[in-house]
């Protein structure tokens, strides 16, 4: 088909815009409460002198935006019931961020907490991050495969709880090997900092490749 | 409007059917990995001699159905990408369960793991259960209010982890008091059994009221 659906047309525009201004953009997708916002709080600080912005989508409230506002420019999108961010919403947020003049190095998009719908909508991001966390259990990669299959990197958060949960990441690795063999799996704890180096290195490398 | 949308028409049919045959039905909605299936495994056993059936929705796999199959009749619905169960899917499942002849006391519907979309779709259930779990954090009631506002009972699972997470349920109670003052909040652990008595009592009372 030569006719892209409306979302994808806008996504293409977003992609061009962010690449033109040298912004490394990622779309972070995961279940509610897996730690996206906590990860961003720590990531932005960990990236040091780099200039970051956050676009965060939620059904209601600006709580996530408030949590990152002191370390990054942020735009909160309230979907009022919508179960995923759309390229159009991201386009509007990029304008609010004044992307052409803001000299941003990184744009982090925190999608609505949802393991199902967000993976169906291209936002124009450079990379897609799929995240799960240890309390969610061992079978989420198999059960929510549409989220993990197209991901560029996979984060397993709350690794600090693995012991108390008797969590073993080998099931995760096995299930991933059947659906996505190119995305690296990074085990980390946004809380304690364990594994954050590997994630920051991945980001910096992605940014460097942007040219 | 006198024209019910297609889903609601089927939901009404489901509701009539389940009530006619004396089945207490609940639709359990929560984030992926909050413990719905574990709760059902323990609940069905806890209800003792009662006859229960489970209708479980997932994007992919029959893993949840396999987990409850030894304690209840079960139908697994694979939505193949659909982010919530529909009344039509439940209607088909009720036929598979042979509801008219099965003499079921309880029908548990485990919805797709998703805090956003399922609350928009009436399945014909008698009661709606909204569940969250301690690792998800303190702000989910406020952020995903559409799920909690219409619930008939609210379960806070994984209470056994509250100490290690430094989790305090008073924020949950405060946020709930602003949007839903009729649903009782039951703190429990499907894993250790703490609080399960209160949940089982709620179910038995609901069943008794069915007449
Ligand atoms: N133990 C532990 N807890 C964590 C970690 N990361 C986040 N949390 C906690 O998990 C809870 C949820 O974190 P959030 O950052 O709000 O999760 P989220 O994915 O942004 O949630 P939504 O935006 O609502 O989808 C909070 O109580 C965090 O403190 C971690 O690495 N380890
Ligand atoms: N510590 C603790 N873990 C629990 C409890 N209930 C469930 N779990 C664990 O949480 C993980 C997820 O449980 P599931 O029952 O698969 O969750 P679910 O809500 O059915 O998940 P989906 O069907 O994929 O949405 C598993 O590792 C369970 O053992 C609990 O009360 N306490
Ligand atoms: Mg968040
Ligand atoms: Mg389940
Ligand atoms: Zn959706
Ligand atoms: Zn949906």
Would you give an account of this structure?
Two copies of one chain form a homodimer. By secondary structure, the first copy, chain A, is α/β, with parallel strands linked by helices. The longest helix of chain A has 15 residues, at 6-20. In chain A, helix 1 runs parallel beside helix 4 (87-96). The model of chain A has no long low-confidence stretch (mean pLDDT 96). A seven-stranded parallel β-sheet of chain A has the order 3-2-4-1-5-6-7, sandwiched between helices. Chain A has a single domain (6-209), classed as P-loop containing nucleotide triphosphate hydrolases (Rossmann fold, 3-Layer(aba) Sandwich), CATH 3.40.50.300. Chain A contains nine helices and seven strands; from the N terminus they run αβαβαβαββααβααβα. Chain A binds chain B through residues 31-33, 58-61, 63-64, 81, 83, 112-117, 120, 133, 135-137, 139-140, 142-146, 158, 161, 164, and chain B through 31-33, 58-61, 63-64, 81, 83, 112-117, 120, 133, 135-137, 139-140, 142-146, 158, 161, 164. The complex binds guanosine-5'-triphosphate (2 copies), magnesium ion (MG) (2 copies) and zinc ion (ZN) (2 copies). One magnesium ion binds at residues 36-37, 64, 110 of chain B. One zinc ion (ZN) binds at residues 83-84, 117 of chain B.
